[in-house]
Design brief:
Length: 227
C-alpha cells in the first residue's frame, strides 16, 4: 500500500498549486481522479504504454454459486474487467466467448438444453454462462478491480508507495489544466511522463522466470552478430 494518506495528498497538492485558498473543495476529487487514471488507463498523451499497467494489488477473486436454470451470475461491484473464471465443481477453466457468439446460441434460453458449464461472456454487470447451468456450480471469478476511492483522512492507496508521487504529480497537472495555467501544466506533464517511463518495467521483471524469457535470441541462433 501507499504511504501518503489522503490528507497528505491533499496538503501536498495544495502546496504544489501555490497554496490557493479557493481550491480546497476540489483537491480531494483531483487526487482520486489521478488515482483512478493511473490504475485504469493504458495511454497518457505521447507516452504509449506497451501493455496496460497491471497492478498486482488490484488483481483479486470472488466466489459465487450458479443457480440451476439461471444463465448468469453477478459480477462484483468493484470489477473493472474479468480475467478468467474457474469452475471448482468440475475443476476446469471456462473459456471466454464473444457476446455475438453467445446470442447466436439458439438454445441458450432452452431449459431442456442445460448442461455443464463451458463458456462465459461479460455483459453489463453480469457474467452469462453457456450452456445454461443444469445444477449448482461453485465458480471463482478472477478479476481486476477498480480501487476504492480515498475518503477518510488516513486512507492510503491500494498500490505500492512507489506510485504515491506519480499520483500526486498527475493530480498537479490535472489541477493546473482546470485552473487554465497551461504553461505550468506543460512542464508538469513532461516531468510526469519521464517519471512514469522509468517505472513501467518494474512489474515486467516478475516475468523473468518464464520460459520464453530464457530462450536465446533468434539472431543468436542464426549465427548473426550485432554490430
Amino acid at each position: 500500500m501507499g504511504t501518503y494518506t489522503y490528507s497528505t495528498f491533499q496538503s501536498n497538492l495544495t502546496f504544489e498549486l501555490h497554496k490557493r485558498d479557493d481550491i480546497s473543495a476540489y483537491v480531494g476529487n483531483w487526487i482520486n481522479a489521478a488515482y483512478l487514471d493511473l490504475t485504469t488507463r493504458d495511454r497518457f498523451w505521447d507516452l504509449k504504454v506497451p501493455q496496460p499497467i497491471v497492478f498486482p494489488e488490484l488483481c483479486t477473486s470472488s466466489a459465487s454459486t450458479t443457480t440451476d436454470g439461471r444463465a448468469y451470475i453477478s459480477l462484483p461491484t468493484d470489477c473493472l474487467y474479468p480475467i478468467t473464471i474457474h469452475d471448482a465443481t468440475s475443476d476446469k477453466r471456462l473459456h471466454n466467448m464473444t457476446w455475438r457468439a453467445y446470442i447466436e446460441k439458439t438454445d441458450r434460453a432452452d431449459t431442456t438444453a442445460e448442461s455443464q458449464l463451458d463458456k462465459w461472456v461479460r455483459y453489463g454487470g453480469y457474467i452469462y454462462l453457456y450452456p445454461t447451468p443444469d445444477a449448482s456450480y461453485s465458480l471463482t471469478t478472477y478479476y481486476y478491480k477498480r480501487p476504492a476511492l480515498l475518503s477518510a483522512s488516513g486512507d492510503v492507496t491500494a498500490i505500492g508507495e512507489e506510485w504515491d508521487e506519480p499520483i500526486l504529480k498527475l493530480a498537479v497537472w490535472q489541477g493546473l489544466m482546470r485552473l487554465k495555467d497551461y504553461e505550468k501544466a506543460a512542464l508538469e506533464k513532461a516531468e510526469w511522463v519521464a517519471m512514469l517511463a522509468g517505472k513501467l518495467g518494474a512489474y515486467k521483471k516478475q516475468e523473468l522466470d518464464r520460459e520464453e524469457f530464457l530462450k536465446p535470441d533468434y539472431a543468436y541462433l542464426q549465427g548473426f552478430e550485432y554490430r
